Automatic annotation (TrEMBL):
Keyword Glycosyltransferase carried by entry: no
Annotated family: Belongs to the four-carbon acid sugar kinase family.
Compositionally biased spans, kind Polar residues: 428-437
Keywords: ATP-binding, Carbohydrate metabolism, Kinase, Nucleotide-binding, Transferase
Molecular function GO terms recorded: ATP binding; kinase activity
Protein name: Four-carbon acid sugar kinase family protein
SUPFAM superfamilies (UniProt xref): YgbK-like (SSF142764)
Domain Four-carbon acid sugar kinase nucleotide binding: 252-403
Phylogenetic placement of the source organism: Bacteria, Pseudomonadati, Pseudomonadota, Betaproteobacteria, Burkholderiales
Transmembrane spans: none
InterPro entries: 4-carb_acid_sugar_kinase_N (IPR010737), 4-carb_acid_sugar_kinase_N_sf (IPR037051), NBD_C (IPR031475), NBD_C_sf (IPR042213)
Length: 447
């Protein structure tokens, strides 16, 4: 095995997986762990979920620093995974790592998912981050300027524009070296294309270990493509299509995210696959087992999964909803379905808190990553449980097709194009709209 390894520290599970999956696709042994305090030394790439997104800044900084101190090893390089829409305590966490790991190379762009950075500001499909639903939901009236956010936690910053990334590679390395020797602690990098990030990856990978990377899945993909990042090259497998997983048990799709992107993805899954849907009211989840309707909702879930019938379960929304209660609602949702978990052969979890809650509730603390269905949609298997396949996806990530594509992947079914008489179903059959609506009513769909 290579003497070089990569440690990815993320603040939620779906982020850890969508960042690390690029390395698995490049043929590297890759694992994701929910237990930051347990050293994992076997894999070439280890992604740790500190579950720190909803913590206080001080707690998040402590957990992130502790994870690096536990997991660091000779030859191991550090990648601090951050959310591409800058959620969580990422700046505080970077500040906690910087004295231990050197210059922070901050590159938040993820062009494959529409995230770019210009003049230190994040854009989502061309829209300033501050104007997006995601930002307004959790950070209304706050600035999304990368320089300002990093400087606010006490780090000295320097900018790196796209012109430097698109120029001479030697000049780029020199420019970064000058920043490193100037006393700056964080380099804020603009990037608009995969090629921009590739140039950054190539320059910094060859500069030794007096720096660490801070980015979303975009920069990680470009680092994973560099065979010389590791001391021993392995056969790259990223061009091979993900192998479909032929599953016989039930597939459970858990959606904790309330983003418009997730809503569109659920709509396509319902329309094309005819999967039954249950939308659990937040009031039930807030009260948990004490709620008078808890047993009834649990019975509805069990009626599907015990019969190996695929099911989409979502968290509803009401006037009392607060984004800060996401972890609590996700934990309750996991408890609701946990009694029937052994009936599953596949789990698709949207939202890092939702994925972590479900795996943690059922005693799963690490995954071996296998493949990627589309950018940000990772496939893995729990260590010690080869029967179960797990797909994770961040809530606001993915195409409209993401959940349906993940479902087809787990079912081992090719997708057939829509026809005028209806949408394609797994197995190649088509169903008209009235028949599809009847199927959904009988499979327990609620609204």
């Amino acid at each position: 095995m290579s003497n070089t390894s990569i440690l990815i520290i993320a603040d939620d599970l779906s982020g850890a997986a969508d960042c690390a999956i690029a390395f698995a696709g490049a043929g590297r042994s890759t694992a994701v762990t929910l237990n930051a305090s347990r050293a994992m030394g076997a894999a070439e790439v280890i992604a740790v979920d500190t579950d720190s997104r909803r913590m206080s800044p001080a707690e998040a900084a402590h957990c992130t620093r502790a994870a690096w101190l536990v997991q660091r090893a000779p030859g191991r390089r550090l990648y601090k995974k951050i959310d591409s829409t800058l959620r969580g305590n990422w700046a505080t966490e970077v500040a906690a790592l910087q004295p231990l790991a050197g210059l922070a190379i901050v590159a938040a762009a993820f062009p494959a998912t529409g995230r770019t950075v210009r003049e230190g500001r994040v854009f989502v499909r061309g829209v300033p981050l501050e104007n997006t639903e995601t930002w307004k939901l959790e950070h209304a009236a706050r600035s999304a300027d990368l320089n300002a956010m990093v400087e606010a936690v006490g780090l000295r910053t320097a900018p790196l524009g796209v012109d430097a990334l698109r120029g001479d590679p030697a000049a780029l390395r020199d420019a970064i070296s000058v920043v490193a020797s100037s006393g700056a602690q964080a380099l804020i990098v603009d990037a608009e294309t995969d090629a921009d990030l590739r140039a950054l990856a190539q320059a910094t990978a060859s500069m030794g270990k007096a720096l660490f990377w801070v980015g979303s899945g975009g920069l990680a993909r470009e680092l994973a493509s560099l065979s010389d990042l590791f001391d021993v090259a392995t056969e790259a497998a990223q061009d091979a299509p993900p192998k479909s997983e032929q599953q016989r048990g039930a597939i459970l799709i858990l959606v904790g995210s309330l983003s418009a992107v997730s809503e569109q993805q659920c709509a396509m899954l319902r329309e094309r696959a005819g999967v039954g849907e249950l939308i659990v009211p937040p009031v039930v989840l807030r009260a948990g087992e004490l709620h008078l309707e808890w047993a009834a909702w649990q019975a509805r879930v069990g009626a599907h999964l015990s019969e190996h019938t695929d099911l989409l379960v979502r968290i509803g929304r009401d006037d009392l909803f607060d984004p800060a209660e996401g972890a609590q609602l996700s934990a309750a949702l996991a408890s609701l379905v946990a009694p029937f978990f052994t009936h599953l052969s596949g789990l698709i979890a949207t939202g890092g808190e939702t994925a972590r809650a479900m795996l943690g509730t059922t005693g799963i603390d690490s995954l071996q990553l296998l493949s990627e269905i589309e950018p940000g949609v990772a496939v893995g298997r729990p260590h010690g449980n080869p029967r179960l396949t797990v797909v994770t996806k961040a809530g606001a990530f993915g195409s409209e097709h993401a959940l349906y594509g993940a479902y087809l992947h787990l079912r081992g079914t090719p997708e057939f194009a829509d026809s005028e008489s209806g949408s394609a179903h797994p197995g190649g059959t088509t169903t008209s709209s009235p028949a599809r609506e009847t199927n959904q009513r009988h499979s327990g769909k609620t609204s």
